[in-house]
Amino acid sequence: MYIYDNIDQRLVDERVTQFRDQTQRFLAGTLPEDDFRALRLRNGLYVQRYAPMLRIAIPYGLLSSKQLRKLADIAHRYDRGYGHFSTRQNLQLNWPKIEDVPEILAELATVQMHAIQTSGNCVRNITTDHFAGVAQDEIVDSLVWCELIRQWSTFHPEFNYLPRKFKIAVNGSVADRAATFVHDIGLHALRGEAGEVGFRVIVGGGLGRTPIIGHVINEFLPSRHLLTYLDAILRVYNRNGRRDNIHKARIKILVKEWGVEKFREAVHAEWAHLKDGPATVTWAELHRIERRFTRPQYEKLSDVDFTSLKTPFNAWLKRNVHPHKQPGYAAVSISLKKTGVPPGDVTSDQMERIADLAEHYSFGELRVTHEQNLVFADVRQAELPGLWQQLREIGLATPNIGLLTNIIACPGGDFCSLANAKSIPVAEAIQRRFDDLDYLHDIGELDLNISGCINACGHHHVGHIGILGVDKNGEEWYQITIGGAQQGRIGKIIGPSFARADVPDVVERLIETYLELRDSEAERFVDVVHRIGIEPFKNSVYGNPDQRPTDRRAALAA
Amino acid sequence: MATLIKDRQIVAQLSPPDLVLEPTDDPALVAGAVGIAGVIAINFPKFGDGRGYSIARLLRERYGYKGELRAVGEVARDHLHAMAQCGFDAFQLREGENPREALKAFDDFSEQYQSTAAQPLPLFRRRA
């Protein structure tokens, strides 16, 4: 964890005071509703379909046991005893009262937490690889850079009112586990020839209505220039991004309309003035941030060999336990995707237990992943059986990380006022259809993402199978895409949409087709789609009328 | 009557601006005039239009404008702190803003992380 100094703490406290005043003025009728909207959003407060929703920031997904206990307590006292982890590594409460929110923020501030810029047209929570700092394929520990960017983006006076929201992701490993190609800015940490740190800068990616893969505008930005370069990009966007149409206001549209060359030139022209200026990153600051991070004191251990048996523990070991750069340690995923529980939801009681377990097994820290799961990053391998046992007791040992039932889904029409359709019941229906664990493991790695509307909070475009809720004359329908990938591929639509009841059948047809076509067990669903295209899948879903899900069901019913 | 603020004081009136810039205006075009103009106003047509903040910083930091820089239009109490950091020193608030409340806004935050027109050294260069 990065531990606040007195200035970091003071700023968060001052924010609470500011928002308390804004809320009071709104409730007293002296602050117009539209203005309050812009102000409450940048404190994470939405007004949703049935109740307000508060989105609490978990900067780059890092959380301490103490903070998780506070979240459990807040969810218990101010909400209905549960929270929802989102794809932006944040926690959402679905039922707080508007007048309670200043008090909730004050409580959060006591554990160095806040809801700053978790919504609104400003720079949002910075996200990163959930294995940062422990990954075997690490190039640079991204956490220090994330904190540097967090501070730079917090209350940036020039960029409080951008044309639209702005999302930055940082990846520090060989594998891109931060979806950097679908962010407004994606940063890949790299090492130069002399080992110096730099960043590949990717701009203009995004999902939503217009899914676009980002463009590299700088192959190697020396790290000391990071903040001046970000200032230059944001300034070009702030001044030139479209403000006439909310659907065309993201930076990706500016990059698309201008073309990447013109955009890069504009950024570099702006940067020429800022480069080497006062915002140039200093070695001393990086060192200061590094020192304020608590780091695990690893023991000298050797790796543990677990005999390969066909037991539930081994299934969990295979799916939920990940390699660690330190011998004798492992990173553990805690799946929040148990069938029957909305993806990403955790109860206050579970939060309490998880906090205890993190304290006992993982140095009192945990991470939230953009797949809406949790990670204990530093577990002694010898203690894996004990941890598994304890997780199983609280229903958190589902061995499905990377598998079809590890569904990423937004809250959807059950909660969100933007949604066209529900996503949670669709997730559950699919999980129920694929409840045979052996079959699931046989299908292998598969990302399935569900969004309740085109805002794409469930990242359906980059799911190997993506499901999007659409509205047809007031009815909920679902459009299916296949072949998307988090590493920067947008899925293709297979055809006309389906009624909710048909979705599990369609997914099943897609899987059957994949199993027939794969050349080996090593070839994943998404690899087959990329190798032979969507036609065979399309044909199996729509081609033969007898095999159309609706017709099949009608035939069965007859 | 609209609340007027100059150098963190309520004032009865402000002199007419020599130049008024809209959010779409390029401050580079008036770079030649910054030594002559005594008052430049930047218009904020909407509560959430943030372009004027960049224009202000450019005038102050790049083109060296030293005169009065005034925010006009949809300017509310809740904008003042950030506007001041970006180099504004005069404000013509929209109708209905409480003057005494507005003055308090300059103290909303006691520190800032970034390099700005008001404080070019970012916090990390001043932090012990």
Per CATH, the superfamily of the largest domain in chain A is Sulfite Reductase Hemoprotein, domain 1
Low-confidence stretches of chain A: none
Distance between the termini of chain B: 46 Å
Mean pLDDT reading of chain B:
95
User: What do we call the CATH topology of chain B?
Assistant: Rossmann fold
What is the spatial order of strands in the main beta sheet of chain B? Answer: 2-1-6-5-4-3
* Overall mean confidence score, pLDDT of chain A: 94
> Which percent band covers the strand fraction of chain A?
15-25%
Q: What is the fold-level CATH name, i.e. the topology of the largest domain in chain A? A: Sulfite Reductase Hemoprotein, domain 1
Q: CATH architecture of chain B, please?
A: 3-Layer(aba) Sandwich
Oligomeric organization of the protein chains = heterodimer
Tell how many strands the DSSP assignment of chain B holds. Answer: 6
